[in-house]
Design goal:
Elements lengths: L14 H7 L1 H21 L10 E10 L5 H16 L5 E9 L2 E8 L5 H13 L12 E6 L3 E9 L3 H16 L6 E5 L4 E6 L2 H7 L3 H11 L2 E9 L2 E8 L5 H5 L2 E4 L5 E3 H4 L1 E6 L7 E2 L2 E9 L6 H18 L4 E6 L3 H29 L2 H8 L1 H9 L3 H4 L5 H11 L4 H15 L4 H27 L7 H7 L1 H25 L5 H6 L1 H10 L4 H22 L1 H22 L12
Helix pairs in contact: 1-17, 1-19, 2-13, 2-19, 10-11, 11-12, 11-15, 12-16, 12-19, 13-19, 15-19, 16-17, 16-19, 17-19
């Protein structure tokens, strides 16, 4: 079949021509990118404020109650450093000793197996036999940057026990909400039951501290005792003597005399059911406070977690005791929402600018299909997020903002080339195929060049590389989908008439652009190109040495200005919130 202008679609070969001749295939591809991306966003992409990554570090935390920093260093830190320094994959060991606490960070070499290093460090710590008897069990873990979403503050003129009780009750209520999974308390001392035995009481009853401690330890256990098989089935045995309050510890029997009298813990000691004696206190608006830190876990999103926490604050305020108040604080979801709003706002402005600019200087129909490349590219790029372990976060949203100014460049070039073919009198299909083919090679290399420019960020080493890798992954994914859309989908849309239902939907826009067409902006642009730009270009080509000299002078002047006038700083000084 040959058209009236002599164009034979049957003779056209290649993916560009095939897709232009088969609009159903291009529409299916478009729907796959849009719907697939949205489904992936709803079900398979994690949303978080900042990427949560392992930092290639292993932390060793050891508590030595009552010891000074010097004692902690001599008895704990030096032994830990000696044990872990020779482990395979260890790059650097950094330790700190504070009162009653030792912390050692084991930094790993690039490419080291984190799980293996964690097990090796645990084994090395377990082999240490020189720790003092009072040293508590070491805690060994891989360091991660888990970020909280929001904090809820309970504050008021109440005692610490009441504040802790209300906070624990609020924490349990928060965890009952299906939108919240993990909440922890901070800003308040940990609970502690202390038993203080005067020396005089020990002498009076012929006891020692070790005997009291052993009796208390033996009387506060919860252990399985096996099972007894009976005709009705197996009966499980268990010792349930766990004690959770000071009064229960006070009832423990220390001595039983022949006359039947008993000496209990409360008879010889002062039992305090309170808090550990540490220098830790939190205040909010000048009043005693405790924070409930709410974290995002799994597929939860910062916005839903923050909304659930704020709803809890509103309900909690109605049930709090007199003198106690609740307030949200440090809501990182606000930063996330602000970045998301910035992306949406910029995308909206970009869509309007592309629609107006191309509609004024080319044609409204072309402007619409080129603009459609922005949502197609963004939605299609989401298909790559699960495989590349990228989430929607502050950094990936920033990468999307970067690509907003780049994503329609190739579509504009191809659309303008097709428009030029149409202006030369060719039919829709012929203009779409030949116009796309004419600029396909430079468009492909332009996109590949941009991808190559961002690719080095994929190889940034260390913990910072795990954050920086998000930017090139997002940018490259968006640009490659944009290339597919501009070469395979856009020509098919421009090669065939717009469907009637779509013309009805776009009728307000098309009517506005028909009114603006009376300004004859395309003709004015061509006039300036022919009478201003082309003469200047011809002179620049004739006076090429002078043109090169101007370019070199601009480069030298710019370098001199940067070296002498623009200050350098590690981080810019900006006003806080």
């Amino acid at each position: 079949m040959t058209t009236s202008d002599g164009f034979d679609p049957e003779q056209q070969r290649g993916p560009v021509a095939w897709m232009a001749q088969n609009p159903v295939a291009s529409n299916v591809l478009m729907l796959i990118l849009i719907v697939g991306g949205l489904v992936t966003l709803a079900s398979g992409i994690k949303q978080e404020v900042f990427p949560e990554v392992e930092l290639d570090m292993v932390s060793v935390s050891i508590t030595y109650p009552g010891a000074s920093p010097a004692e902690v260093e001599q008895a704990v830190v030096l032994a830990v450093e000696e044990a872990v320094r020779g482990i395979d994959g260890v790059k650097k060991v950094t330790s700190s000793a504070t009162e009653g606490q030792a912390r050692t960070l084991v930094e790993l070499l690039l490419g080291a197996d984190t799980d293996r290093a964690l097990n090796d460090v645990k084994s090395a710590i377990d082999r240490i036999t020189s720790f003092p008897e009072d040293v508590e069990r070491p805690t060994v873990s891989v360091v991660s940057n888990r970020q909280q979403v929001i904090s809820l503050v309970l504050y008021g003129d109440v005692d610490e026990a009441t504040l802790r009780a209300v906070a624990e009750n609020s924490r349990r209520t928060l965890l009952q909400d299906p939108r919240i999974t993990y909440v922890e308390l901070s800003g308040i001392r940990p609970l502690e039951i202390s038993i203080e035995v005067p020396q005089a009481q020990l002498r009076k009853h012929g006891l020692t501290l070790d005997q009291v401690a052993a009796r208390v330890r033996a009387a506060s256990v919860e252990l399985p005792g096996g099972g007894v098989k009976t005709q009705a089935g197996e009966v499980l045995l268990r010792t349930t003597e766990r004690r959770d309050s000071g009064n229960e510890f006070g009832n423990i029997i220390l001595l039983s005399h022949p006359d039947g009298s008993q000496v209990r813990v409360r008879d010889v000691a002062t039992v305090r059911d309170g808090f550990r004696e540490i220098d830790k206190e939190a205040t909010y608006n000048g009043k005693r406070a405790v924070m409930l830190n709410v974290y995002r876990v799994g597929n939860e999103t910062p916005l839903t977690v923050s909304a659930a926490a704020k709803q809890h604050v509103e309900k909690l305020q109605e049930t709090l005791p007199e003198g106690l108040y609740a307030a949200p604080w440090f809501d990182t979801a606000e930063m996330y929402e602000g970045r998301l709003d910035l992306l949406i706002g910029n995308a909206r402005i970009g869509l309007v600018l592309v629609l107006l600019t191309l509609g004024l200087f080319l044609e409204a129909r072309l402007a619409f299909w080129v603009t459609l490349g922005i949502p197609i590219s963004f939605a299609g790029s989401l298909l790559f997020f699960p495989a590349s372990e990228v989430s929607i976060n502050m950094i990936s949203l920033f990468a999307f903002i970067i690509t907003l100014g780049m994503v329609v460049d190739d579509a504009i070039v191809i659309g303008e080339s097709i428009y030029k073919q149409r202006m030369d009198g060719k039919g829709r299909l012929q203009a779409a195929i030949e116009g796309a083919r004419e600029v396909a090679q430079p468009v492909v290399f332009a996109i590949l060049t941009s991808c190559v420019a961002f690719a080095p960020m994929l190889f940034v080493p260390g913990p910072m590389g795990k954050f920086f890798r998000v930017i090139p992954i997002v940018v490259i994914a968006v640009l490659m989908i944009s290339l597919v859309e501009s070469l395979l989908i856009l020509p098919a849309h421009l090669a065939h008439p717009m469907p009637a239902w779509l013309r009805i939907v776009l009728s307000p826009y098309l009517w506005i652009m028909r009114g603006l067409a009376k300004l004859n902006m395309a003709h004015r642009l061509q006039y300036h190109i022919q009478h201003t730009y082309v003469p200047i270009l011809n002179r620049a080509l004739r006076w090429r040495y002078f043109t090169i000299a101007i370019g070199v002078a601009l480069v030298v002047g710019t370098l001199g200005y940067v070296a002498g006038r623009i200050p350098f700083t590690f981080l810019p000084k900006v006003a806080g919130d």
